[in-house]
User: Which sequence fits this backbone?
């Protein structure tokens, strides 16, 4: 267990090569130059009272309770704003200081409700603490003067309350919103006595630009901004460090608990991915874990038209095992398979792929990374030699030029976006390559230097055009290339990109981006200092996703931007454990650690450890499983924590494939869309109910901690183990740490990883082995993992998904801040107050041409299917392009998307679908069928309705 409150040093840590030694209350202390007297005191174990200072924010110097005496200086300087000096002699406790501090506190308290006993932050309030510390005994001014005690509370935010009567105007919330979050939603309105915190133009928090990250709540030293969960439940009793289960940033949290109940999630200040910050999802949207829709009993049925029958764990597991063996006897060993989930822990994913390879006896295992970052794995392995991003998130603080391609971190990786924005405010330049005008292009204090607003599907043309400028204008890093890259491949690539057909001018019509913008962006990237590329699914989810990843790596190598701080090629991984699920051997052709299944040496190691003979042939990928199901050769599926019906493209094809199978086993928290086609339902466990690890986008392995017992009786890894044993393949782990020990012993890049080490260091980035016992923050430092960096020719091939008279618009898909992926979790939280339906964004010209008005219902039709959503008219999308999200099952965004996929990895081309959009008055046929099917399935499961269901 961790102590509830970490030490607050008052001001941020400084890094400096110069040390300063001073004396505080007779204690000598040496700190880096630039450190405040307050921080030096705290480091020396001397507590100076403070109210407006906290170590996550720059000092402000307004409350005056932190005054000290410094020998040889007049007056009483504020310790938070005074930097240390060599030989300085500081006194923090004198009768005069005590007097001044008491006086200041009297002023604060005379305008503060004296309701400590009933106040939600009683026992965890800095104002209360400081009053105690300075020995406040009376308030000479009385409580009857002009005050703010009658101010109304703002309860508009579903997660926190703003009680203005308790505000001491310390400005911490305003600075947190600016410095930590970068949203600039708060100001101090009014002057002197009238000054108060205001959201937006004196709006309510919900009406303002606030994105509910909670940084202000965390920074507030009083009960003014308080979590509603704390108001309801009181202060926590104990806490444990764990990791957010939403996105690939992998924020570390302290789960603050009362018994087995979460009181609040507080971002952990020592978390190396988030440094004490979070977004609305991780901090507040954890209520799904105890939502009434949780399915807590195992269930079975023979046909999907039969009612579900609740059974014991033994019976459900026994039935699943006997069905799998029956199917294999009838259709052959390869007729079943498994799908692992990037929402699950490394240990759980490892066990599922082990179950498939060792107990099913085939390699039919795939993961949801197939549909998001599989091109990253392929492209980076080919060019650089390792299927992972090259940097830490902190590296962005050393970048001079940031290029964001096909990603909107402000909504999909919010905590990293805040860090990136901090760097931009310090002056780094920004290039955004995106078909939409996202928050990264323009938002408070962010303005992209160049926005390459390309047509969807033309990424490879853009990367060739950028490379053309770099090569033909002599901007390559010749010495770096000569030393570190494969000469022949560079020569071939150089010749290729130099061709006139790859010039920005020649490609302008294809990409829609003016040649001069491309030229200027290329010059900035190549010559602006440290240049770092961050990219997302807008790069990978294309027919040429792998080509584009290789194109990005080519550009970075050609300009010498790989292998040190501030540069690199950084895939922004979508889900919490996408990196981990790939590392753990979830792909049908790779064992853990990306070793090919045909590699007899690697196979022999696993065979010896697992006591089985492994099939050297790769198994089926997810889309191949669907095709094989329709052919009648793939009949059984174990699907852990993944909703393929909602998340995979061409929903109707997926549904037909699942309907054709004889036994589908779904393990999940909820009766998700895939479970509606299942024959066995095994209750899943939330991240709060299990031990394990997640690996974030920086290759950082962090602990997930069990803070409450598994609600259905078992953690997910235990259920996989039961299934393996029922299939006759023995697994006997007693804790996930033993699974990690096995992973480490079989995976060279994980040889040094243990739970103990992760707990000691807080987290560890792989490779972690004898060569790097504490992990590897930055990869490819002196040489590339593959030896010489290899350039690949990236010929632009237009997608076959073409616009026509019938389908004249391009649909592209993405995410929104408050919802997550298929929405199974966030739809079951108050986050629906921000986003309760998927909308279709359309440009005013396209809307007008079709007679579409704001909020109208519109039908969207593609070659795959048809659905109906409400329209949002916005210039964020360009003419000819429409955009939607896929968080709600009934909107059926993936009914529209097609079977097109990346040539190398089959990653679906979610980002380009030719569509027509028209005003309509009723749901589409698919939606009507879906609603009926959904109603039947809920009835068969004896459920009335589901959050976000039809
Ligand atoms: S919750 Fe976040 S965005 Fe909203 S006001 Fe507070 S710091 Fe700003
Ligand atoms: S709301 Fe809290 S943090 Fe903000 S000014 Fe008031 S007391 Fe300070
Ligand atoms: S940024 Fe990602 S990991 Fe961090 S709190 Fe938000 S969802 Fe969780
Ligand atoms: S803590 Fe230093 S002036 Fe407020």
Assistant:
């Amino acid at each position: 267990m961790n102590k509830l409150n970490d030490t607050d040093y008052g001001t941020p840590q400084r890094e400096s090569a110069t040390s300063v030694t001073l004396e505080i209350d007779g204690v000598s202390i040496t700190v880096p130059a630039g450190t405040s007297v307050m921080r030096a005191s705290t480091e020396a174990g001397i507590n100076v009272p403070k109210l407006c200072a906290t170590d996550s924010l720059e000092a402000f110097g307004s409350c005056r309770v932190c005054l000290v005496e410094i020998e040889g200086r007049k007056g009483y300087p504020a310790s938070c704003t005074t930097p240390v000096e060599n030989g300085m002699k500081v006194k923090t406790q004198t009768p005069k200081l005590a007097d001044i501090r008491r006086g200041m506190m009297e002023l604060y308290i005379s305008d503060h409700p004296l309701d400590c006993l009933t106040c939600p932050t009683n026992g965890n309030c800095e104002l209360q603490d400081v009053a105690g510390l300075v020995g406040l005994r009376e308030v000479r001014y009385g409580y009857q003067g002009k005050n703010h005690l009658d101010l109304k509370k703002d309860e508009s935010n579903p997660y926190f309350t703003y009680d203005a009567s308790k505000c001491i105007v310390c400005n911490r919330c305003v600075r947190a919103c600016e410095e930590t979050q970068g949203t600039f939603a708060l100001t101090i309105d009014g002057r002197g006595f009238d000054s108060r915190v205001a959201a937006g133009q004196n709006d309510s928090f919900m009406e303002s630009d606030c994105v509910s990250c909670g940084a202000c709540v965390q920074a507030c030293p009083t009960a003014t901004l308080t979590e509603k969960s704390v108001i309801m439940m009181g202060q926590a009793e104990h806490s444990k460090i764990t990791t957010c289960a939403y996105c690939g940033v992998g924020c570390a949290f302290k789960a603050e608990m009362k018994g087995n109940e979460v009181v609040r999630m507080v971002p952990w200040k020592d978390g190396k991915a988030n440094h004490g910050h979070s977004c609305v999802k991780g901090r507040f949207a954890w209520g799904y874990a105890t939502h009434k829709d949780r399915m807590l009993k195992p269930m079975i049925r023979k046909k999907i038209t039969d009612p579900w029958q609740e059974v014991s764990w033994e019976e459900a597991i026994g039935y699943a095992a006997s069905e799998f063996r029956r199917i294999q006897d009838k259709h052959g060993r390869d007729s079943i398979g498994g799908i692992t989930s990037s929402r699950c822990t490394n240990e759980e994913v490892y066990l599922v792929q082990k179950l498939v390879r060792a107990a099913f006896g085939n390699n039919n295992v795939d993961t949801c990374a197939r549909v998001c970052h599989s091109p990253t794995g392929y492209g980076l392995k080919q060019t650089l030699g390792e299927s992972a991003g090259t940097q830490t998130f902190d590296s962005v603080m050393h970048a001079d030029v940031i290029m964001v391609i096909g990603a909107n971190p402000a909504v999909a990786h919010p905590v990293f976006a805040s860090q990136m924005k901090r760097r931009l405010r310090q002056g780094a330049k920004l290039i955004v390559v995106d078909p939409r005008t996202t928050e990264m292009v323009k938002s408070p204090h962010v303005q992209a230097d160049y926005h390459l607003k390309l047509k969807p599907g033309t990424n490879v043309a853009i990367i060739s055009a950028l490379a053309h400028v770099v090569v033909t204008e002599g901007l390559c890093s010749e010495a770096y290339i000569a030393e570190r890259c494969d000469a022949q491949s560079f020569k071939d690539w150089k010749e290729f990109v130099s061709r006139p057909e790859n010039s920005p001018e020649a490609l302008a019509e294809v990409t829609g981006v003016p040649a001069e913008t491309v030229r200027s962006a290329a010059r900035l990237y190549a010559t602006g200092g440290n240049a770092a590329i961050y990219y997302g699914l807008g790069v990978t989810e294309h027919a040429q996703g792998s080509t584009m990843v290789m194109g990005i790596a080519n550009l970075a190598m050609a300009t010498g931007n790989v292998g040190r701080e501030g540069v690199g090629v950084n895939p922004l991984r979508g889900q919490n454990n996408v990196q981990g699920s790939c590392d753990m051997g979830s792909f049908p052709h790779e064992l853990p650690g990306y070793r090919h299944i045909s590699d007899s040496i690697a196979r022999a190691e696993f065979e010896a450890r697992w006591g089985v003979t492994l099939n050297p042939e790769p198994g089926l990928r997810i889309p191949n499983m669907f095709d094989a199901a329709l052919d009648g050769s793939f009949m059984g599926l174990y699907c852990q924590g993944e909703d393929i019906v909602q998340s995979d493209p061409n929903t109707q094809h997926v549904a037909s494939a699942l309907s054709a199978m004889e036994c589908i086993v779904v393990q999940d928290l909820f009766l998700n869309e895939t479970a509606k086609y299942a024959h066995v339902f095994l209750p899943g466990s939330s991240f709060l109910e299990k031990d394990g690890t997640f690996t974030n986008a920086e290759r950082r392995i962090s602990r997930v901690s069990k803070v409450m017992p598994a609600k259905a009786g078992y953690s997910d890894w235990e259920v996989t183990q039961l299934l393996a044993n029922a299939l006759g393949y023995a697994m006997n782990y007693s804790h996930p740490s033993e699974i990690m020990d096995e992973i480490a012993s079989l995976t060279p890049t994980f040889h040094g990883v243990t739970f103990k080490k992760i707990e000691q260091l807080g987290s560890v980035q792989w490779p972690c082995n004898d060569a790097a016992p504490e992990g590897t923050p930055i990869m490819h430092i002196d040489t590339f993992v593959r030896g010489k960096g290899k350039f690949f020719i990236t010929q632009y091939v237009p997608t076959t998904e073409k616009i026509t008279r019938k389908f004249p618009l391009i649909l592209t898909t993405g995410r929104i801040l408050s919802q997550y992926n298929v929405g199974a979790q966030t739809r079951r939280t108050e986050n629906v107050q921000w986003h309760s339906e998927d909308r279709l964004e359309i440009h005013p010209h396209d809307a007008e041409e079709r007679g579409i008005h704001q909020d109208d219902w519109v039908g969207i039709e593609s070659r795959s299917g048809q659905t109906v959503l409400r329209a949002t008219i916005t210039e964020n999308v360009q003419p000819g392009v429409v955009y939607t999200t896929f968080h709600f099952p009934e909107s059926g965004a993936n009914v529209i998307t097609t079977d097109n996929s990346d040539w190398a990895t089959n990653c679906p081309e979610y980002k380009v679908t030719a569509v027509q959009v028209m005003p309509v008055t009723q749901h589409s046929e698919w939606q009507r069928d879906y609603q009926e099917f959904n109603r039947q399935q809920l009835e068969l499961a004896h459920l009335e309705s589901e959050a976000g269901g039809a």
Observations:
- The two ends are 42 Å apart (CA to CA).
- The chain has a mean pLDDT of 93.
- Residues 176-177, 181, 183, 185-186, 210-216 surround iron/sulfur cluster (ligand 1) (CB under 6 Å).
- Residues 79 and 737 are 46 Å apart (CA to CA).
